[in-house]
Amino acid sequence: MPELPDLVHVAEVLNGALAGKTITGARTGDPTVLRLMVREPFPAVLVGHRLAAVERRGHFLRFDVGQGLVVVINAMLVGRYKLLAPLPEAQRKKDPAALGLALTFEDAPELQYLDEKRMGKVYLARAEDEGRIPVYGELGVDLLSPAFTREAFGKVFAKRRDQVRPFLMDKKALASIGNAYADEILFAAGIHPKTFCKKLEPAAVDALYAAIRRVLPEAVDEIRRRNQPPEVKVRDFLKVRGRDGKPCPVCGTTIRAVRVGDGDACFCPTCQPETRKLFVSWSALEAARAQAPGSSTKTARPPSRRSASRRRATSGS
Predict the structure, then answer these.
(1) For residue 295, is it within any domain?
(2) Are 49 and 69 contacting, i.e. CB atoms less than 8 angstroms apart?
(3) CATH of the domain at 17
(4) Using CA atoms, how far apart are residues 185 and 240, in angstroms rounded to an integer?
(5) Greatest C-alpha distance within the chain
(6) What is the pTM of this model?
(7) What domain count does the chain have?
(8) Which of 76, 230, 247, 303 has the CB geometry, 3.0–4.6 Å to 120, for a possible disulfide?
């Protein structure tokens, strides 16, 4: 899924290639991806319109196609954007099965939105109705905007009673953080992903805010520097996400993955120690392994507290 730093770059690339160009055609590989909020028929409603701008709003891309019409795309899990050099119709290849939307332009590349999982959604709406688009109309404060102040963050945070990682990923609170950057932000702040918001001390809340303000712009700068095509997801510079089983770049502890809510979080047990008793204590395991004579670097699965209790009961201890 393209996350906020990815989408900043994607929007800039698409805007540079397509803004001011006239739409000559539109098609879809799967009509179920489209959410038509206009009465006019697709694709005729788009043909002849001049694309005014492409911009990111939270985790959505918004295409202002002029005359009061917008196309808003939520790429969800695996959606991606691709620019193709214009070709005569006789030379065009068959559309990929993953095609969600294609827009052709006069004297410009073709834009394709691709989604193998069919989880993303493409909304075609009047500008005055775009606030009715699910989630899009209820987005929280944009994390790259001047409105994202420490005071604004504190007001949102003070209402939370859930774990910190689900809070970060709540698009109606903060617009918008996905799995990858939730992990990176928590690592930068030194906070375990299972920590409950109400358990964080004021200094930790300050650190969390500072981490958001630092991690996201740094990622935007790095992705811009790489300047890859919009369909390429650049993640190899991340410190913990996707590095389960590898050493922490700061302390060398093995990075772990733990289930939090509906997804897995990657974290360092040493840099992000747990603040409450967990079913599996990775930090305790790492400490025990480090102190053991002749300890091997081979990763072992830790015993659960339940298993340890069962062994004690069996031994009569």
Answers:
(1) no
(2) yes
(3) 3.20.190.10
(4) 10
(5) 82
(6) 0.86
(7) 2
(8) 76
